[in-house]
Amino acid sequence: MAVERIVIENCAIATVDGGDTEYASGHIVVAGNRIESVGAGRAPDDLENVVRRIDGTGHLATPGLINTHHHFYQWITRGLATDHNLFNWLVALYPTWARIDEKMAYSAAQGSLAMMARGGVTTAMDHHYVYPRGSGDLSGAIIRAARETGVRFTLARGSMDRGKSDGGLPPDFAVETLDGALAATEATIDEHHDASFDAMTQIAVAPCSPFSVSTELLRQGAELARRKGVRLHTHGSETVEEEQFCKELFGMGPTDYFESTGWLGEDVWMAHCVHMNDSDIAAFARTKTGVAHCPSSNARLAAGIARVPDMLAAGVPVGLGVDGTASNESGELHTELRNALLINRLGAHREAALNARQALRLGTYGGAQVLGRASQIGSLEPGKLADLVLWKLDTLAHASIADPVTALVFGAAAPVTLSLVNGRPVVEDGRLLHVDEDAIARSTREEAQRLAGIAGRD
User: Fold this and answer.
1) d(CA 151, CA 142)
2) Res 88 pLDDT > 70
3) What is the pLDDT of residues 225-268, one digit of tens each?
């Protein structure tokens, strides 16, 4: 059977390839689930089996956005504890989060995924670490929501084994045992991880943070991930308090602690990494440990500003993350493109700390790097998977900005005319094709109310 082709032409193109190749007016040919060609001008007229030809006039084509850190379940606890720092925010919300069940997790995942997908995300990631006893198949529910939405997905199967009685923050009934967490994580990998080139679902091993997991869970989690050939993810160096906690409990800072447990390496990425000194950055660069930069959440929780320009200069792989929507109520990744650029310019003489094209790279190729998929996604190049977005830039919001990449990053959120994942349309004219976002809005509202009611009775 002949492969079907989709042709997009007459659009500006930012490929985000190794040379940052761009075309003021060019074409993209998609054959099946792969990018067949990218170039200047119109596509050849004699292409066979073209099932769709799209006029991209007034648009910019980019790789699909890649989210590298999120907590989907938080969608149903948005707008709470809005004036808290990280520790107080966790203390305020853990008792509520500890009451989630399978239906809530599914609905919250639907909301999180829908918001990202309609805003240009083609690869999503969820770090889910709250598994209350008797709550059902939370991992399966989250993966099902991602498949229904149509996005590429990594579930970082999280865990916690340090409850409140052991000096941790979460309630005891919301944590797992060491053996239970490892066994459940391995079972999730065995059931759901796909290692193929065009995989739509992958699993990572992801103990939550130094505050909520034992040293042994970190150490054995790293061993499990490497035995299974999957990636590792956790939170790192998010606050000053975390550094103090690690020094008091382990006699060393977070980076040295992570390295002592096997948690630095090219198969590891960590969220936040706000409080990193020169030695920490050098260790990440030496080991090619990745970073998920979450500027909006870091600002919302007053955690600080990550040294992203210094990390990039040192060779650290950096992507962008939404983080949970209880600390980033908008829940979409375009905000992170813009805020990564703006926040990293704060301070005297930092006007060139990041530019628009670096921000776009963070949200695309950088994300592919930290998820271990840079050979497959993250740039528009022949042979790569057809994950791409066509942004409409000829409306009032952007029409007077001459440079399309500047318009996309500095400007208001651009409408998505078309989003392809694996060569399959997921969004057209700003609407999701495979799920009903109005029904999702109703469901998430109901589940948020149900969770609030349960938590209020306890």
Assistant:
1) 12
2) yes
3) 999 999 999 999 998 888 888 888 899 999 999 999 999 999 99
Tokens of 227: 């035995």
- What is the helix (H) or strand (E) element at residue 407, kind and residue range? helix 404-410
Widest distance between CA atoms in the chain: 70
Helices (H) and strands (E) in the chain, counts: 15, 17
Here the contacts of 166-172 (C-beta below 8 Å, separation 24 or greater) are 166/214, 168/211, 168/212, 169/87, 169/90, 169/91, 169/94, 169/211, 169/212, 170/94, 170/97, 170/98, 170/130, 170/212, 171/94, 171/95, 171/98
- φ/ψ region of 17 (left if φ > 0, alpha if ψ in -120 to 50, else beta) reads beta
Structural tokens at position 326: 């209880």
Q: How does pLDDT run across 276-307, given as a tens digit for each residue?
A: 999 999 999 999 999 999 999 999 999 999 99
CA–CA separation, 384 vs 91, rounded Å?
A: 44
What is this structure's pTM?
0.97
